[in-house]
Amino acid sequence: xxxxxxxxxxxxxxxxxxxxxxxxxxxxxxxxxxxxxxxxxxxxxxxxxxxxxxxxxxxxxxxxxxxxxxxxxxxxxxxxxxxxxxxxxxxxxxxxxxxxxxxxxxxxxxxxxxxxxxxxxxxxxxxxxxxxxxxxxxxxxxxxxxxxxxxxxxxxxxxxxxxxxxxxxxxxxxxxxxxxxxxxxxxxxxxxxxxxxxxxxxxxxxxxxxxxxxxx
Length: 216
Fold this sequence. Notes:
Helix content: 40-55%
Shape: elongated
Low-confidence stretches: 1-7, 15-21, 44-56, 208-216
């Protein structure tokens, strides 16, 4: 999940990790630049569900990327794996095949195939992007982002009761804490409901008797 200003991403965990913090920062900067460039190129198409058929000059690789993107969209729509997608529109990047999903006319996140980049870190778009990540990548989710976004992601996963694990220990800790707090809140609500005072049958009959005498 990426943001145009701050990096937010979900993707499949890598089998091995290497590099330095400087390498990560360089990669983050490149991803932000790519997202900004993609948004600029996609601007004319974000109001519709497909790139116009009249688009020309595509290489075989670009045509294949677009076809694969259309197949990803069709599968999600056909199987209704993510019902919330019905509320969104999608646009396919003409060169890369990346799919940008928009909510209420505003670009929300980009499905890049191996990663999902969040453009607007709002609760609704984060929840849908997270659900898509689970459908695409399985129970093990690798995510990056600001502490605020990590907390939002962890809270969303707990509220959705997702059976997943984050590879980042900090996000996983937030997720487990959110699950614990939510469970405690639900248990307190259930206990309060069970312990609520109930009107006895004898008192109910007495009240009815008094009411009848008064009416008489």
